[in-house]
Amino acid sequence: MFKKDIGLLILILVVGTVVAVINPLFLSAINLGNTANLVGLFGIFAIGQAFVIITGGIELSVGSIIALLGVLFVDLIVGHEMAWPLALVIMLGIGAVIGLIHGLLVTRMHMQPFIVTLCGLLIYRGAARFYTQDGTAGFGFGVSFPQLEWLTTGRTFGVPHSFMALIFIACLMWVVLHRSVFGRYLYAVGKNEEAARYSGIRTNRVIIAAYIISAILTAISAIFFAMYTRSISPSSHGNFYELYAIAAAVLGGCSLRGGEGSIVGVVLGTVLLQVLQNLVNLLGIPSSLNFAVMGSVILIGVLADQQFAEYRKRKSEVAGRISTA
Amino acid sequence: MAGAFFRLIDIAKSYAGVQALQGVNFAVSPGEVIGLVGENGAGKSTLMNIIGGVIEPSSGIVEIDGVQRKSLTVLESMGAGIAFVHQELNLFDNLDVASNVYIGREPLYGGPFRLVNRKKLNADVQPLLNRLGVDFKPETMVSDMSIAQRQLLEIVKALSLNSRLVIMDEPTSSLTLIETDRLLNVVAGLKASGVSVIFISHRLNELTKCADRVVVLRDGRVVGALAKAEISHGAMIKLMIGRDLKALYVPPAAKPGEAVLKISDVRTTAYPTQTVSLSVRQGEILGLAGLVGAGRTELARAIFGIDPLLAGSVALNGKAIHVDSPRQAISHGIFLVPEDRKRCGLLLDISIAENIALPNMKACASSGLVNDSVVAANAEQQRERLHIRAPSVDQEGSSLSGGNQQKVVLGKWLAMNPRVLICDEPTRGVDVGAKSELYEMLRGLADAGVAILMISSDMEEVIGVSDRIAVMHEGMISGFLERAEFSEHNVLRLAVGESIH
């Protein structure tokens, strides 16, 4: 665990304690379960976002992908009565293709990630609305998929399966990012793409892979969201979710310049965001202030983190000078 | 000299123990064209930066119009009518000609709104363009202009400041012959209108054509001045050199073997019309000398797969190979120690160990997962072998000195098995002690059978370390020198494009 992660964990514990003291409902099983469910839903695609941010890129189309794949998935299994495992595989496939296209546009066509994914945001949202003719996609009365529902929205010992999925994915991605050769390449490309290329790393492939990973994880959460909300109005489903993902990644120690970030940090960042949402509800703060509270905490958090980092750097520089002298 | 408005008296400058300039006296009279020559590193840039007010001399006096001072600031230098035309042009290529000339000094109207008066701006610029007889207009976008036109635009900028002294640093390095002639006419025109010019050039021909006198720098000193009648190639080169540099040399343990790397009729993006052929033999250090901008780095980049080869072929041990990415070059055992160490050579904010492991990460991993103890052990091995001075291999690259950073870059490649090692300016920014260590390592590698191509602009290094020298001039190999023919004189003559026989 990095120093940054510990700081974030402490912040979460402090905020949690304060909320619990003011409103003990915070620690009730129901509330914790619901919050864990939301952490799971948001955490999965936030991890994907982190991969892209570590390359120095950004993925803005997350929310629109969640809407588009959501309506497609519901339509395939309800409207076309396709077997849900097949539909699920198709969704992951579409996700991979979207990631591949983003990656190719960024690397081969030398387009800026912000622009590529901003256009994606607009295109997929439009496609989702067109596909349903702006209607709501949902499960009709009496339609049910017991296994799928159990897998996505069920609970075991009170722990929501979405949260378990996050833990599983986070462990897997932790190995990929922090232990695999690919992970080392990813950091190297994010820190200095040119030097990475001179070291023989196929930087384009690494970047493309990051976008594919991001889009596939987003596709997984799209299915969780579809099953959780059970009805999807394509004009609002998933709005702003890319910003939650970026916020979680940044809170978790990712630098938008690339080359930094950790899986634990991103998960903790997601937890903090959801705890803040919860805090707004539990403390009776008008829900219209929701975003304002989140924005303020992120601002203060990142600011404090940077000040600390600079302080540490100055201190270690002084120490270094003394030891070499 | 009588009538000089600008004088440097006994100027010296030292950087951390290195004497960059010493006892330099230099005077400029109105309407005089002074050629300034010297090898790479002779102190030309330092001298120009002192005149431009960018750096402060350690001692000495700067005198302008009879007023003496210790140093100049950039503003004082500009105010005294001194203008620079830099080698790397300082133009905004998203703006047009007129905006570039008057950037920050635009004629305004509209009172508090401070709007730019385009009409007056263009009208002010036009006479300056007429004066130089250029073929572009005030409205021409800089991005649409050729390098030669941009160079002229820099001179226009200088004129717009009512400059009395224009300093041109290698103004013709990227110009064609015709463009060069035009520039020389412009210089003559400036001279006729009373403007003085300091003309720094490696192209000695131009100096014989345009200079009134030539000042030669060597090792930070003015070693001679040639009056108009005395200016000749031979005289200039004779002054520029003058050390015995063969002493450093350590001969190879065995006679060089067969050619390992052979490149034939290769064209690179820097000089698409020129071809290069050379071969590096097993166990030899081939020095690649030449002036800055001769196309050596571009050649190295193309061999290593960073830039595309426009034509020609590369063969390794007699077999043609195709390289279009560094990955492929590395898989063939062709490694590059790049010129720009901090940007391309290593990652400054990851550890020494990771830097060394990066090109060969798969060897430190099993089933895709990195084994950090292998990474550390490999790095430790290289640290001992190369005497990298760092408390531990977990240290970040940025905490190391230049010499130790370069050892890390070498360590990356030595951890694998090099067949061909291309070093681009391997000792730039490296202190003397680390330099000789690096030379020892290169010799050790060569003796172990590696073919080494060493690009260097440092004469001492080229002559002292190489077994054979290839000299490049404007994208072409202008000649090869065997050990017996090594001399600064010969290298320099080939570097400026003359033949030595």
What would your notes on this structure say?
The complex is a heterodimer of chains A (about 325) and B (about 500). Chain A has about 325 residues and is mainly α. Chain A has a domain at about 40-265. Chain A has helices at about 5-20, 30-55, 60-80, 85-105, 115-130, 145-155, 160-180, 180-190, 195-200, 205-230, 240-250, 265-280, 290-325; strands at about 135-140, 155, 160, 230. In chain A, the strands form two sheets. Chain A has a two-stranded antiparallel ribbon with strand order 1-4. In chain A, helix 2 (about 30-55) packs across helix 12 (about 265-280), helix 7 packs across helix 8 and helix 8 crosses helix 10. The longest helix of chain A is centred in the C-terminal third of the chain and has 35 residues, at about 290-325. The relative contact order of chain A is 0.19. Chain B is globular. Chain B folds into three domains: about 5-240, P-loop containing nucleotide triphosphate hydrolases (Rossmann fold); about 245-335 and about 415-495, Rossmann fold; about 350-405 and about 410-415, no CATH class. Chain B is of the alpha/beta class and about 500 residues long. In chain B, a hairpin with a 2-residue loop joins strand 4 and strand 5 (about 65-70). Classes of the chains: A mainly alpha (about 325), B alpha/beta (about 500).
Layout of helices and strands:
The complex is a heterodimer of chains A (325) and B (501).
Chain A: H1 3-22, H2 29-54, H3 62-79, H4 84-107, H5 113-131, E1 137-138, H6 146-153, E2 155-156, E3 159-160, H7 161-179, H8 181-191, H9 193-198, H10 203-229, E4 231-232, H11 241-251, H12 263-282, H13 290-324
Antiparallel strand pairs in A: 1-4, 2-3
Helix pairs in contact in A: 1-12, 2-7, 2-10, 2-11, 2-12, 3-4, 3-5, 3-10, 4-5, 4-10, 6-10, 7-8, 8-10, 11-12
Chain B: E1 6-15, E2 18-28, E3 33-37, H1 44-51, E4 59-64, E5 67-69, H2 74-79, E6 82-85, H3 97-101, E7 108-109, E8 115-116, H4 118-132, H5 147-160, E9 165-169, H6 177-192, E10 196-200, H7 204-210, E11 213-218, E12 221-227, H8 233-240, E13 259-267, E14 276-281, E15 285-290, H9 296-303, E16 311-316, E17 319-321, H10 326-331, E18 334-337, H11 341-345, H12 352-357, E19 365-366, E20 369-370, H13 372-386, H14 402-414, E21 420-424, H15 432-447, E22 451-455, H16 459-465, E23 468-473, E24 476-482, H17 488-495
Parallel strand pairs in B: 3-10, 3-11, 6-9, 9-10, 15-22, 15-23, 18-21, 21-22
Antiparallel strand pairs in B: 1-2, 1-4, 4-5, 7-8, 11-12, 13-14, 13-16, 16-17, 19-20, 23-24
